[in-house]
Amino acid sequence: MAQGSLDSNGDITCPTSTDGESSASHVNAGLDRLRINAADENDDDGAVQITCFSDLSDDLTLHFQIIRLHKQIYAWIGCNSAKFGHLYAAAPTRPNNMVSVTSLLGGASDNTGSGIARRIVLKTGLNVVLACNIPKDSPMLEAAAEKKLVRKLIDLGYT
Amino acid sequence: MDALSAPFPVRHRKLSLDIQGNKTDIVICSYDDHFLVIATQIGSMGTTLHARKEEGVSIHPTFSVSVIFGKRDEPVLVACARQLIEHISNCGSSRPLVLSLGLKDHSVGTLRGVVTAVIVNRLW
């Protein structure tokens, strides 16, 4: 990058570039660096879109992460921590578009996330993979998390 | 710092690149107790694998990789998970890996491309 210097009046000057394009490219390179470094909670470039948000209610913090792919949605719900939790897959299946859910990780004894996944598919018709670490036997928390997640999905354009 | 002004607890990294002629979207997420890697060329998560380091007393760790959703007869996918979990272990982390691969072709070149791209952009 060209170094500036002070002229006799004390003003900063830069040696003029003989090639007009290279100074524009310096500016553009600087702008690109800023864009690359800027942290963005709504990561929107390209085909895959990632949305992260948190919600504080009743002394509990719920964290939500939604990764949107073309034909599928991955969502993670965290209750007060960033543990991965149990993983479920749910989708409308033949016949009659009835919803099927399966547990992928975490065993079938704790069904908190599977109910949420099933109801998301019922409401939105999407193919969903859900990771959820909400503790079992908390129906109010489960309902609150599901409501917030579904509202966000509707805001993002899924109905 | 209250919960709403704290940074989001899960770090993630997203990239898009061309692997053997196919546009591939890769997302890497770091949770407290897992790493999640999604590499897709088909718009969905595809086959999902779970890879973890086994508890053991010997110097050399052993790893267990299993397909939890999708194609169970593609050794290239298992090899990909195996390479990544070993890399995670060599970098000092014992967290297991959930890997989703939605690939158009299951060639060794694609495997290499995915593994390289994930390692270069790793969060471990």
UniProtKB/TrEMBL annotation, chain A:
Q: Which GO BP terms, alphabetically? A: proteasome assembly
- Indicate the transmembrane segments per the record: none
Question: Where is the region Disordered?
Answer: 1-26
| InterPro entries attached to this UniProt entry | PAC4
According to UniProt, the name of this protein is: Proteasome assembly chaperone 4
Q: Which organism is it from?
A: Escallonia herrerae
From TrEMBL, chain B:
User: What InterPro entries does its record include?
Assistant: Proteasome_assmbl_chp_3, Psm_Assembly_Chaperone
Q: Which domain of life is it from?
A: Eukaryota
Looking up Pfam families in the UniProt record yields: PAC3
GO BP of this protein: proteasome assembly
Q: Which Gene3D superfamilies match?
A: 3.30.230.90
Q: Which PANTHER family match?
A: PROTEASOME ASSEMBLY CHAPERONE 3
Q: What is this protein called?
A: Proteasome assembly chaperone 3
Q: Which organism is it from?
A: Escallonia herrerae
